[in-house]
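Appendix B. Chain record.
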Amino acid sequence: MLTGIRAVLLDMDGTLVDSDAAVARAWRSWSAEYGVDPERAVEVGHGRPAEATIRLLLPDLSEAELVAAAERDHELQYDDLADVVAVPGADRLLSTLDGRGLPWAVVTSADHRLAKARLAAAGITPPLLVTVEDVRHGKPDPEGYLLAAARLGVDPRACLVVEDSPAGLEAGRRAGATTAALRGLPGDVSVAGLDQLADLL
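Structure tokens predicted for this chain:
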């Protein structure tokens, strides 16, 4: 199934970068401020842009209130990098891609500032980074993955999307890509971790 892959498009949080604890801390702090169930916020927020998450949690907010609430969530995350590291197997996977000459990109629901900070903390420098600020519609919309494929000059149907969230996997499927799913989620290929994916590639 992976023999025709010509590019690999990777999610960031939970896929390449272990930032789960930082993300959860931010959503719990945000939830306390906004009177939202913190566990629901953590669950709904995984893999989605902040504005999309907040729209689900607080559907009655005005557009201005929504923007302010999303900005507050971002503020809580920007400097919380103490335990942000590369996911096990990330270095090996990226070395495998580079060794095979496969172009790759990171496509994330984070904004540019947060994405750069977390990737730097994990020691990862992607050749192409697509953030929520580059698209009109975040995951599960396929726009980010379609944009990354276009910028790499590769047909989305020849791309492998690597994700760890239902929203991200849906985005990959809707883009027409082959999907590799982590965390036991269903995808075209389900892998236990990035080391296994490196073996398959």
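Further analysis of this model is presented in Appendix C.
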